[in-house]
Each structure stands twice: as structure tokens, then as C-alpha cells.
Amino acid sequence: MEGVLRKRTPQPEVHRITGAQRPHSDDLDQRVGRYLVSMLIRTACVVLVLVIHSPVRWAFAVGAVLLPYVAVVMANAGQSRREPPPPTIDLQPRPGPALPPS
Fold it and tell me: Which of 7, 34, 42, 53 has the highest CB neighbour count under 10 A?
């Protein structure tokens, strides 16, 4: 798990010339980030359930109970959305005009 939370140095923009998927580490970093945000929201809901003493606290209680399920589903959603491959270059020779006889 050491490599999951590493900080990356800024890299220059690289143009994709292949239909290959993005690296698994990029996908994993995005999923961990989404999960952490969901858990921070859940923690806030739990704290608000303990602090607020009005009927609104039940809405926070529902959020605190349902957010773990939503967070796990979102974290497991991985690379389900594939980007379309970049346009390909046609390298087949095209018939051109014939050369005149010499």
C-alpha cells in the first residue's frame, strides 16, 4: 500500500498515440481518492449526528449508514468507462496515377 499514496512529480503532457488503457496505478489513485472523500463526508455525518439535536440529525444518520456502501461501489467501479481509441493512420499505399511510358 506504500505506492498507493505516493506523491507524483508534475510530468509534461504526453500525447497518446495508442489505444492502450491508462496505467492501473492512475486508476487506483483515482479510486482511493474517491473513497477517501466519501469517508470524510461520512465522518462529518457521524459528527453531526452527535452534535445536532434536531430532526435533521436523522438525515445525517442515514448518510452515515449508506455512505460506506456507496463508497465501496464507487471504489470498485475501476476502469469501466473506456476512452475511445485515438484515430488511426492509414498506412496502406494508395494507387496513384500511373507513370507515363518512357
Answer: 42
